[in-house]
Design goal:
Helix 2 packs across helix 10 and helix 7 runs parallel beside helix 8. By secondary structure, the chain is an alpha/beta fold. It is built from 10 helices and 8 strands. It has one domain: FMN-linked oxidoreductases (TIM Barrel, Alpha-Beta Barrel). Helices cover about 50% and strands about 20% of the residues. Bound molecules: SN-glycerol-1-phosphate (1GP). The site of SN-glycerol-1-phosphate (1GP) has 15 residues, from strand 8 and helix 9.
Length: about 250
């Protein structure tokens, strides 16, 4: 089954959790370890990537190790055109709609397009919106950060994504954000779009994850919390359980 079909079925049946692993932080071995524990804790998908530049060789090495250790589908979450591996199950072919620089809206995508198409790796069109505080993703992606009460901007971008045919919209506060995207923001965006919403950045507790899910996030992403955890399973299990109970 295609990754997007699988994801849509999961979304119909409840909330979805994705674990973001950045091989630039964890290395191939560490990435595989996190993935294995995250799978045990009930994560639905592994996202591999981040804002730090990685070569396709580094992406290959980490993805192959992850796939040796767990069966959860692996989706590339690229920060640049070279962050691709044919060993992944899918790629979020994404555009940072609120970037000031066309590089992140369409140029990296253009550079990677022929390789991605030829590889046969499933491509999932996704809009990426970066909110304050934005962190490294906001700086690297030269984002015009969406403020906590800029509801109109956020909903307009999200509806634009839907009308352009994108399958998912990702609301990003930035990895390691001091505060996650607020409830009201998620609710306002959810009200206006019918494509699934991913929320991530700064979610470190079961309460924060449940908040995002209750407000309307279909998919909740956590990254840093697992990278920093002494025990990845013990840390992720309550976070994942907290969203799985939300209807
Ligand atoms: C970053 O939204 C993800 O792209 C995850 O953020 O690392 O803060 O969990 P955290």
């Amino acid at each position: 089954m295609k990754v997007l079909d699988n994801l849509m079925i999961k979304i119909k049946n409840g909330k979805v959790h994705m674990t973001l692993i950045d091989p630039a932080t964890s290395g191939p071995e560490g990435s595989a370890l996190i993935a294995e524990q995250a799978e045990k804790a009930g994560t639905d998908f592994i996202l591999i990537g981040g804002s730090t530049h990685l070569s396709s060789g580094q992406m290959d090495a980490a993805t192959l190790m992850i796939k040796e250790r767990c069966r959860v589908p692996v989706i590339i979450f690229p920060g640049s055109s070279s962050m691709f591996t044919r060993h992944a199950d899918a790629i979020f072919f994404m555009s940072l709609l609120n970037s000031m620089d066309r590089e992140f809206i369409v140029d990296h995508q253009k550079q990677a397009s022929l390789i991605v198409k030829k590889s046969g790796v499933e491509s999932i069109p996704m809009a990426y919106l970066i909110f304050a505080p934005g962190m490294t993703a906001g700086k690297v992606g030269k984002a015009m950060l969406i403020g906590p009460d800029h509801f109109k901007d956020a909903t307009e971008y999200a509806v634009t994504a839907e009308l352009l045919g994108m399958k998912i919209v990702y609301l990003e506060a930035g990895s390691g954000a001091t505060f996650p995207i607020g409830r009201e923001m998620i609710m306002k965006v959810k009200e206006k779009v019918s494509i699934p919403i991913i929320v991530g950045g700064g979610i470190r507790t079961p309460e924060a994850a449940r908040n995002a899910a209750e407000a309307g996030a279909d998919i909740v992403v956590t990254g840093t919390v697992a990278e920093r955890a002494e025990n990845v399973f013990e840390t992720l299990k309550p976070i994942i359980d907290s969203i799985k109970n939300v209807k």
